[in-house]
Amino acid sequence: MSDLFSFNGAEGAGWSQPEPILEEGVARSTVPRALVRDRLPGWPRASEPELVRHYTWLSNRNFGIDTGFYPLGSCTMKHNPRLNERIVQLPGIDRIHPLQPDHQIQGLLTIFYEMQEMLATCAGMDAVTLQPVAGAQGEFAAIRCIQEFHRANGEGHRDKVIVPDSAHGTNPASASMCGYDVIEIPSADDGRLDLDALRAAVGQDTAAMMITNPSTLGLFEIEISEATRIVHDSGGQMYYDGANFNAIIGKTDPGRMGFDAVHYNLHKTFSQPHGGGGPGSGPIGVKDHLARFLPSPIASRRARADDDPEGVGDGYWYYWRDVGESSIGKVQQWHGNAGAVVRAWAFYRRYGRDLERMSEHAVLNSNYLRHVIMNPDPKTAKAIHAMPAEGAPADLVMHEFTLSLSPLKELNGVTGRDVAKRLLDYGYMAPTLYFPQIVPECLMVEPTETESKEVLDRFAADFHAILSEDPETVTTAPHTTTVKRVDEVWAARNLVLRHPGHSPDSD
Amino acid sequence: MVDQLPNLGREREMLEAMGMSSMEDLFANIPQEICRLDPLPLPPPQSEEEIWADAQRLLGTNVTLDDRPSFLSAGLARNFVPSMVGMLATRGEFLTSYTPYQPEVSQGMLQAMWEFQTMISELVGLPVANVSMYDASTAAAEAITCAVRVNNKKAEQRDVVYVSQFVPPHRLSVIRNYTHGAGIELRVLEHGWDGHIDLESAASAAGCCAVYVEQPSSFGILDAGLTELKAIVGGQTALIVGVDVVSLGIVEPPGNWGADIVVGEGQPFGIGPTGGGPIYGVFACSERYLRQMPGRIVGQSWDTDGKLAFTLTLSTREQHIRRHKATSNICSNETLIALMGAIHMALLGPEGLERLALRVAASTEATKLALTAIDGIELADPEARNFREFALLLPGQAADALKHLDEAGVLGGFDLGLWWDGMSKCLLVGTDERTSQDDIDALANGLASWVGEVQP
Lengths: 507, 456
Prior knowledge:
A: alpha/beta, Aspartate Aminotransferase, domain 1, B: Aspartate Aminotransferase, domain 2, seven-stranded mixed sheet, 15 strands
C-alpha cells in the first residue's frame, strides 16, 4: 500500500519555487500578530518522483470508461474524446478570468453563444443559460425561475411540486431546497406515468411537475403531451429533467412535448468527463415566458459596429447581457463551468447535425443489449438458474433499460447486489443498482453509443455465465478486485474520515 | 462523417437480430405529433483537425492573464500549476470514472479523496472535510443551510443568519438563492470605517443560527478582530469563515480561533482560473455539523479479508437515498478538480505552502508600496494588513483608470463600483505569487500617467 503521509521528507521533497519579491521577514510581517500561524499543516513531504508513482499506483486501482465497459444507467458513461482535453489546455480558456472585459474574451463568448443556440435548438427552448454547474444545480435554478414566475403572476401560493416515484433523487431534493412540498405519484403497472394519479395530484397548489422522458426505466412516456396538458390546465409548469436527453436528440424534444423548462447534462449527453464524480455542467433552457427569470449574465451578440474592437471575424460583437431585475440572480459565482462548456462545444462540433445519429446508436445499443440478454440461446438458457425479469415489460426501450433479479433471489438468494459485484470480476463496471426503487432487485443498464457490438455480445455472455454460476461464488464476489467486498457498515459506524497519524490538535 | 460510433454501418445486422428493419423502428414509441421530422438545423460534423483549428482560432482571440501584467483576482488566483498535476489527474482511470459507488474497483479515487479530506482538515484546523462543493459561493451557501439545520431548534434568533456586509454581491446572490427556500433571514454584519468587522455591532448576532465572514475580506483585509467573534456570538451559533486557502500557509487557520465551518475557493490549488470553472469549493467542519453536512465523504474501512479499504460513507444524508429530505441536492460535484488540488497540495508540502503564501504576501506588500507612492492615490483602508488584494482610492473613476491601463497593456484590477454603490473610485488590485517587479512597474507607470491626465 502506498501511503501519501509516509514519505520521508528528504531535502529534495516538495517543489522548488522562486524567492518572494520582498525579503521573507517583510512578507511575514504583513500578517497581524494575533493571526500568525504557528504550526504548519501536517501535509506529506514528498518529491515529484515519489508522487508520480503514488498517483499512478492509485490510478491503477481505479476503473474508468477507458478501463472497460461502464454500463452505469442514468449516468451516460460514453467515451470522452481526448481532443476535448487538449483544447481546454489552451491558455485562451485555462488562463481566462471570468471578470475580464468583453473585448478580451470574444472567442470564449462566441463559444458560449454557439452552445446556447445549439442547446436551445436541440431541446425546442427559447433561451438558455450555461451557468449551472451540475444537473442538480440546473434543476434547482430552473425551479427557482418557475417559483419567481408564479410570484410575478400573483400565484405565490402554489407550493407543491409533483414528481413520479421513478424520478432521480435530485428532483425531489432540488424542489425541497426551493421550499416546495414534494408530492410523489406512483407509476402505473407498466412503469409509465399514471395519468389518473397525476390528475388526482394536480390542483390550485401545483407549482410544477418534474419528470424525465424517457423515464429512468428507459421507457418513452407515450402520454407525455396529455400530462403536460393536465399540469398546464392546473396552472403548473412542466420541468424536463434532461438526464436522459441522450435518447432523443433529433427525434423529438421537450419543447414539442410541451415542457416549459429543461436542464441539460453536458457531462452526460455532451461527454464532459465524469472525473470520479465531477465536474459537470447543467445548463438550463426555458420558453420565452420564463426567460426573464434566468440567472445572469447570458452570452449575447449584435451586429458589429465600425467602432467596435476587432471580434472573431464573423461580423458580430459578443457580450455578457444582464438579465435584469427579474432574474433569480446567481447559482454559481461566475459564468458556470466554462471549461466543461468548451469541451462540450468540441464534442458537439464532432457531430453537428448528426447528433441524431448519436441518439440512434445509443438506443440501438440499448435495445440490442437488452435483446441479447433476454434471449439466450437454448444451451445457455438451460444452464441459467433464473432469468431476470424485465424491470418494465415493453417491446422497446430507449437508451437504457432495467432488469429485476428478483427471480434469482427467490430461487437461491443471489441478489442484484451480488450479481453487480460479480460483474466486477469479469472486468465490467456494475450497472446502477437498486434504482429506480420501484423495480425490485433492480439493475439499470445504459450501454451508450460508443460501445461496439462485440462488447455488448461479450457482456451478455458473461452476464449469462454469472446467472449460471454456483450461488456461493456470486454471493461472495468480487474475488479478483484490488479489495474484496468493503464493509460499509463499519465505515459508517466508526467514521474514520481522515488519516489517523495527523490531527490538528496533536502538536 | 462522425468518427465516434463503433457500430456505424452495422445497424442492419443488429436490427435484424432483433427482428427490426429500420432505425425508425427503435423510436416507434414517440407519438407522431411530437416527432421532429426535419433534420436538426445544425452544421455538418467536423473532423478532429477542423475542430482543433477552430478552437485555436477562437480561443486564440482571447487576451489571457499570461499575456500581460495582470492584477485581476477578486476571488480567483492567477496561479502556476505544477506540470504533474494535470498529467496525473487526467489519467484515464481517474478522468473517465464516475462516483465510486463500487468501492472494490474505485480504491484509487477513494483513497485520493480521503487524503484530500485529510489535507484540507490539516489546512483549516477542523476535523472533517468533504470531497468538494461546486465553488466557494455554494460552499458558503450550503454551510449556512447546514448550520441552520443544526442550530435552529435551540437558537435564540431562529432562522436568522448574519452575513458580512462586504461579501461580494455574486456570492451573496448565490447565498440568497440557496437560503431562500429554507426561510432563512439574512442580516448584515457591519464593518467599521476601517474595513474591519465592527465587533460592537456583532453582539447583535449573538444567539442566531450562523455568522458568515471572510478572512481575508473582499478587500484582502486580514482582520485580527475575527478571532474574538466566536466568544461574542456564542457556542450555539455557527461561526462560518470563508478563507483564501493559500493564505493559510502563514495565517492562523480559523479552526484554531473558533470557526465551526470553514469554506473557500480551492482553485489556487490545482487548476487555472478557467473562465470561472470548473473550480471547487472547500468545505470542512467540526463534529457537531458532520451529519448535516452537504456533499460526499470518504471513510476508511476494511474488506472481507481484513484489508484496509475506503468507501463512501454517511450516504444517508444524500439525495439518491434520502430524496426530498436530503441535506443537499448535490450529485455531480468537482472531484477531479479536488484531485488536482490534492496533487498540488501534496507536491507543495508544508514548507512549500508557507513559501507560496509568503510569495503572495510579498507581492501584495510590494505592489501596495509602489502604488501608494503615486501622488493622488491612497489606500482605501490605510491601517489594514492585506493578503493578495487591497483597495485603492483613486482621484477619478476606476472604470476610466482600467480603460487607460488596458490601452497601456495592463489588466489593472477590478472596479469595485460594479459591486457596491459609492465605490466607483475604488480599484481592487489583486496580486499573486507570479507578480514581478516589472509587472508592478507597468501598473504603477500606467496609473501615474492616468493620474497625470485626470489631475493636471
